[in-house]
TrEMBL record:
Any single Gene Ontology cellular-component annotation: nucleus
A Pfam match: RRM_1
Major subcellular location class: nucleus
One of the record's GO molecular function terms: RNA cap binding
SMART domains on file: RRM (SM00360)
Gene3D superfamilies listed in its UniProt record: 3.30.70.330
Organism per entry: Macrostomum lignano
The protein's name in its UniProt record: Nuclear cap-binding protein subunit 2
Origin: domain of life: Eukaryota
């Protein structure tokens, strides 16, 4: 700064408790300081005593509650009251993960979410008819704090070129890994009108309304052989008939 005859040294710091978060510290030097003195001072820089703002909790500067708060979605298949469901959501360490590609593997999901904490298990969502992945999963952590880290830092990231979304879940129970759509997959894939190559193309209902069959995918430039008529079939000689007659002859 030419007005104050001082210059500033700005450097980032990674926190030990939250490795995905960093903050900045500032050290001020007179503009007349020699390069050697500046280098020596930077080397000895004690970040815990220079400025109190460098050791203040990051929650004062960043509102992280919004990223971990409960969404408005409530599972209509939950067996219990809404208050009970909310209590379980507030203490849960399980996340629902949506908008996955059908071909995303469990190993990829584990690698991504393990950056937020220790993953206990992953349950892949399956088509209830085909028993194939249908674009969602449940990720369970050992602790609530690790699940909160995933909500803060993993939600909205890209996996297989798709923006995934996470939400709190009450906890996995057997049977919840299957899609609830009429066609076996997720309900959202029943009525989708856009073409999504990562989730099976068009929506299942749309495909049914379009009358999906082999004729829809026939190349008009390729001639189709005419079907055989009853007359031509009757006129065609039978290869088995002469053989039968020969056998019957004395």
């Amino acid at each position: 700064s030419t007005t104050t005859n001082k210059f500033f040294f700005l450097r980032p710091h990674l926190t030990r408790t939250q490795p995905l978060f960093f903050y900045w510290s500032v050290q001020v030097f007179p503009i007349s300081s020699s390069p050697v003195a500046v280098a020596a001072s930077i080397k000895k820089f004690n970040f815990t005593t220079i400025l109190t703002i460098t050791i203040m909790s990051k929650r004062k500067y960043f509102d992280t509650s919004r990223s971990v708060r409960l969404s408005t979605y409530r599972d209509q298949h939950f067996k219990g009251s809404q208050n009970e469901q909310e209590k379980r959501l507030l203490s849960s360490s399980t996340l629902y993960v949506g908008n996955l590609a059908f071909y995303t593997r469990e190993e990829q999901i584990h690698e991504l979410f393990s950056r937020a904490g220790d993953v206990k298990r992953i349950v892949m969502g399956l088509d209830k008819i085909k028993r194939t992945p249908c674009g969602f999963c449940f990720v369970e952590f050992y602790t609530r704090s690790d699940a909160e880290n995933a909500m803060r830092y993993v939600n909205g990231t890209r996996l297989d070129d798709r923006v995934i979304r996470t939400d709190w879940d009450v906890g996995f129970q057997e049977g919840r890994q299957y899609g609830r759509g009429k066609s076996g997959g997720q309900v959202r894939d029943e009525y989708r009108v856009d073409y999504d190559p990562g989730r099976g193309g068009y929506g299942k209902i749309i495909m049914q309304k379009m009358g999906q069959d082999d004729r829809m995918f026939t190349d008009p430039s390729v001639p189709v052989a005419p079907a055989a008529t009853a007359a031509s079939t009757a006129a065609a000689p039978s290869a088995a008939a002469p053989a039968a007659a020969t056998t019957a002859a004395p």
